[in-house]
Specification:
NADP_OxRdtase_dom; oxidoreductase; seven-stranded parallel beta sheet; Oxidoreductase; 10 helices; AKR; two-stranded antiparallel sheet; about 15% strand
């Protein structure tokens, strides 16, 4: 059941033992164009990371493939030694061959190299949340899961998450490891993974939407614009607020390379939607996706 303004909870516990604020930060956009190479404004990228912590954000999502490597390196440069409550979730399972190119490689030998690199770049002995970026269609999923299981037993990983997976794949993974999070594309007008969101809610897993600011449908966008005017907010802020109301296990990781946009995104966590406006967005999004 969706949260209402009266029951809105600002925090969530990953794996029942790591509590994070549900408004996090996604560190993909602090790299160069095409998520390739260094950012155009390195100083601003550092300021974004430092400001996120100042605002009270204590969950940062990144990946070895962002840059590649650049995002993780900047996080360590900006924030190490880390605040005690900061949780950094990173990912492995993709290669980078150029701007906007993301070949999949979740073979154990590559994941071993990726995990070791992430630990080194982030200056950590253990990753709090290590997420499989994609299932590799060229090898049995079980081989990837066996690697993650082994890395967790070696205490290199505390918790394990998955990305772009369906319910059946989550259930298979659960035979090998405890899955604490799923990161799939989702927004108020892109409900492809609705069943996966509900499965996560029912099974105490975090659901982390990527591309959370809308699927670009014009009819849905008009409703979003109308609601945003009532709250003196931006459409992006309302889209993020709707997600926080949608389900108590949703963690948000909107990304940006600008401090101003970071602060705007963060303010979405303070917007309490009325039942009427929540349902208007909920219905138009559902209708849009079905159509």
């Amino acid at each position: 059941m969706a949260d209402t303004p009266k029951t809105f909870n600002p925090t969530y516990s990953l794996g029942a033992d790591i509590t994070v604020n549900r408004m996090g930060f996604g560190a993909m956009r602090i790299t160069g164009e095409g998520i390739w190479g260094p950012p155009k404004d390195r100083d601003e990228a550092i300021r974004v990371l430092q400001r996120s912590v100042e605002l009270g954000i204590n969950f940062i999502d990144t990946a070895d493939s962002y840059g590649p490597f650049i995002s993780e390196e900047l996080i360590a440069e900006a924030l190490y030694p880390y605040p005690k409550d900061l949780v950094i979730g990173t990912k492995g399972g993709l290669l980078r061959t150029g701007p906007n190119q993301w070949p999949i490689n979740a073979k154990p030998d590559h994941l071993k190299e990726a995990l070791e690199g992430s630990l080194q770049r982030l200056k950590l002995d253990r990753i709090d949340l290590y997420q499989l970026h994609r299932i590799d269609p060229e090898i049995p999923f079980e081989r990837t899961l066996e690697f993650l299981q082994d890395a967790q037993e070696q205490a290199l990983i505390k918790h394990i998450g998955l990305s772009e997976v369906n319910v059946e794949q989550i259930q298979l993974a659960q035979k090998y490891v405890e899955v604490v999070s799923v990161q799939n594309m989702y927004s108020f007008d892109n409900r492809k993974w609705e069943a996966e969101l509900m499965y996560c809610e029912d099974n105490a897993m975090a659901f982390i939407p990527w591309y959370p600011l809308g699927g670009g449908n014009m009819k849905a966008q008009e409703t979003l614009d109308q609601v945003s005017q009532k709250y003196n907010a931006t459409p992006h802020q309302i889209a993020l607020s709707w997600l926080l109301h949608r389900s108590p296990n949703i963690l948000l990781i909107p990304g940006t390379s600008k401090v101003k946009h970071l602060e705007e995104n963060f303010q979405a966590a303070s917007i309490s939607l009325s039942e009427e406006d929540y349902e208007a967005l909920n219905q138009i999004g559902a209708d849009t996706f079905i159509s």
